[in-house]
Amino acid sequence: MKKISWVLALGFFIGQNGVWGQQVTMVKWPDVQKILTQKSDTTYIVNFWATWCKPCIAELPSFEQIQQNYKGQNVRVLLISMDFAKELKTRVIPFINQRKIRSRVWLLNEPDANSWIDKVSSEWSGAIPATLIVNNYKNKKVFFEQKLEYSRLVKELTDFL
Amino acid sequence: MSNISTTMKNKFWLSLVAVLALGTATTLFFQQKKAQASPAGYPIGATVADFKLQNVNGTTVSLSNYKDKKGVIVVFTCNHCPFAKAYEERIMGLDKKYASQNFPVVAINSNDGADYEEDSFDNMKKRASEKGYSFPYLQDATQAVAKAFGATRTPHVFILRNDGGKFTVQYIGTIDDNYQDPGSVTKRYVEDAVNNILTGKPVVVTQTKAVGCAIGWKDA
Description:
Number of strands of chain A: 7
Largest interface: A-B, 27 and 27 residues
Radius of gyration of chain B: 18 Å
CATH architecture of the largest domain in chain B: 3-Layer(aba) Sandwich
Structural class of chain B: alpha+beta
Number of strands of chain B: 9
Structural class of chain A: alpha/beta
CATH architecture of chain A: 3-Layer(aba) Sandwich
Oligomer: heterodimer
Strand content of chain B: 15-25%
Helix content of chain B: 25-40%
CATH topology of the largest domain in chain B: Glutaredoxin
CATH topology of chain A: Glutaredoxin
Distance between the termini of chain B: 57 Å
Number of domains of chain B: 2
Shape of chain A: globular
Order of helices and strands of chain A: HEHEHEHEHEEEH
Largest sheet of chain B: 7 strands, mixed
Largest sheet of chain A: 6 strands, mixed
CATH superfamily of chain A: Glutaredoxin
CATH class of chain A: Alpha Beta
Radius of gyration of chain A: 17 Å
Helix content of chain A: 40-55%
CATH class of the largest domain in chain B: Alpha Beta
Strand order of the largest sheet of chain B: 2-1-5-4-3-7-8
């Protein structure tokens, strides 16, 4: 009986937190700024998305594929969620676990978006999905306020590698 | 005398129609040219072309219906978007505060109901009546109005001042500086802008950005 209740408790724990164990870090703007200004020869694909945004969800597998296929080429995918901070545990973490997302996921809790949108790109109106590809070592940066396909990402990445 | 003034009046109307037609043709031309690119829209100071859209109460609403007002707070919004939902009460509050001062809210949904069922015209009607919107909630079925304005997301606010029958854009952007928590707002951009216009002062912060749900274009 005791064993069963332990198994149940463990099951409950896993159900709550997910076997996937992917972390979603709640961050502030300076954390993002650090990535956008870091100087090593690493190409960052920074995607702004949210769990309830259909076009964002539709393009997530493409970013996951990039993350997987470009691992050895200094390419990092960073998915920055614009979900509300209070929904981190109830919505974002379960979503990431359910979809077994491997890319790094942050939740940016910085509600005064007017103070940082232009720092991502002056081309960005603020609509999501939005994606920035940046490599400061190579002095290259390209921004998209639209949904991106895998083939498009591959094409854009050739400029960075 | 009366004959001359009639002719002059006719001439005036004729040229007005010609100008409007030319304007529409130009707008259509440019819209077609950059159907895929993000629309540039009206800059600050631009005169807004009249539009005519279906309201949730069965009437149609035009900007020209507001000729006796001091201005209009145009809000591109929708039902499904959490940012729009987070701002819904605040949008209702703006109309409560400013409609009586001749500066009402006009809400426009330009999303395609095919993308999000929640944004269909029927669901717009439901939402407006459930929440008791005191302002029109218009459907921009062809998305032409959103494209003309350059609205890209929800919510996206355009404050128009009535300059003797012409509506000019005085502010473009977000309602305030905290979408997550109305209690933590420190800058009320829309209220500041409307207050300034109402007291005959220029708007200080004319453009801001905010995160929002992309308006789903039909041709994208």
